[in-house]
Amino acid sequence: MTQRPTLTRFLIEQQRQENILPAELRLLIETVARACKTIGHAISKGALGEVLGSLGQENVQGEVQKKLDVIANELLLDANEWGGHLAAMASEEMETIHLIPNRYPKGEYLLLFDPIDGSSNIDVGLSVGTIFSVLKAPPQAEGREITEEDFLQPGVTQVAAGYAMYGPQTLLVLTLGTGVYEFTLDREVGAWRMTDGPLQMPQGNREFAINMARRCQWTPGIARYVEERIAGSDGPLGEDYNMRWTGSMVADVHRILKRGGVFLYPADARKAGKARLRLMYEANPMAMLIEQAGGAATDAQTRILDLQPTSLHQRVGLVLGDRAEVAAVAEVMEPCA
Ligand code: AHM
Ligand code: MG
Q1: Has residue 1 been placed in a domain?
Q2: For position 167, what pLDDT does the model report?
Q3: Residue spans of the chain under pLDDT 70
Q4: Domain identity same for 111 and 213
Q5: 194-230 CB burial, b ≥16 within 10 A, e <16
Q6: Pocket test for ligand 1, best of 243, 276, 313 (most atoms within 8 A of CB)
Q7: CA angle, 81 as apex, 75 and 86 as ends, to 5°?
Q8: What is the ipTM of this complex?
Q9: 211 labelled ligand-binding
Q10: Are residues 261 and 160 in the same domain?
Q11: Residue 124 CB: number of other CB atoms within 10 A?
Q12: CA of 16 to the centre of ligand 1 (A)
């Protein structure tokens, strides 16, 4: 069997060849990857590890927290606090940012994460994931305490993004802005080994992912887009489309990276600003990965990575994947008022 490069080796080679990976960022990626290993281990124990079920409390988003949401959040905070690579962290599970305690050295990076994406799948044994995004603290923050505003940078400024997927295999998919690489956890030796990359998503696969039960939230444009596709070969497009929806964006995005297709979670047309997914730690990192793999990501009109965030937990409509399909969604949308 061929010996595939480990994540550590890949990172060291990136540091040497591309000169795009400062030592602090390498430490950050390795630390996140190590925490994801631990999270994956806890998830795989399931009921035996007494980690399933809810806590009976809500997070800042008003969502009931699963035990694993909190465990994974703590694991990521603990792993990243002391290494000296971070200035602060932010998470889907915390109301505001988490500063690095004064007893530890501070670095120049900001880490954002969704500790468990697809939480509703945890208790039924389906794939879930961890999504992360890395920004640099702005220069004006030097010498003072980091604030929430320092995090509000457009996605185009991300220096790294990725996700771990806890499914049939435990995977880590990563971009440092120089392509997308997939690593599979080799459980026997505890190492991440490269299994794909640089990854280019296939274009032209007629497969879309949308929660059809949210039909009442769609604009007429989104409804038309979906109706044309479910009409199949008898419809205006003359093509059969397939539909997949896992309830875990990580799993849907992973399928799209490997097999092609498009993912849609449009904003709720009935109320401005109402949407399901979060810009800073869901849409932005996934948009960076998808663009790096040759796809596109918009809020149905505007490129996700160009959006200027206005708050940490801001929600946004999201359409990502196949370039032609993302463009087709923009075409059926009504022009902005
Ligand atoms: P979460 O991070 O709280 O789990 O929420 C995000 C998830 C995505 O993974 C997924 O695409 C979406 O919510 C599923 O929403 P729905 O319940 O409408 O199917
Ligand atoms: Mg999520």
Answers
A1: no
A2: 96
A3: 1-2, 18-19, 56-57, 59, 61, 64, 335-337
A4: no
A5: beebebebeeebbbbbbeeeeeebbbebbbbbbebbe
A6: 276
A7: 120
A8: 0.97
A9: yes
A10: no
A11: 8
A12: 38
**Under 8 Å between Cβ of 237 and 292:** no
Shortest-distance Cα residue to atom 11 of ligand 1: 249
Residues 144 and 32 in one domain: yes
- What's the 118 CA to ligand 2 centre distance in angstroms? 6
The H or E element spanning position 73 is helix 67-81
44 carries a ligand binding annotation: no
- 234 and 94, same structural domain? no
Q: Which residues pair with 184 in a beta bridge?
A: 171, 193
Tell me how far apart the alpha carbons of residues 280 and 286 are, in angstroms, rounded to a whole number: 10
For residues 96 and 71, state if they share a domain.
yes
The Å distance, Cα 116 to ligand 1 centre, comes to: 10
Ligand 1 center from residue 46 Cα (angstroms): 20
Residue whose CA is closest, atom 7 of ligand 1?
Answer: 118
Which atom of ligand 1 is the closest one to the Cα of 251? 9
Q: Which of 182, 205, 204 is nearest to 193 (CA)?
A: 182
- The domain in which residue 303 lies consists of 207-336
List the helix and strand counts (H, then E) for the chain.
8, 17
The secondary structure of residue 85, as a DSSP letter, is -
Question: What is the tens place of the pLDDT at every residue in 202-244?
Answer: 999 999 999 999 999 999 999 999 999 999 999 999 999 999 9
Q: In this structure, which ligand is nearest to the CA of 126?
A: 1
Task: Give the number of residues written for the chain.
Answer: 337
* Residue 10, SS3 per DSSP: helix
pLDDT of residue 187: 94
Pairing of strands 315-316, 277-278: antiparallel
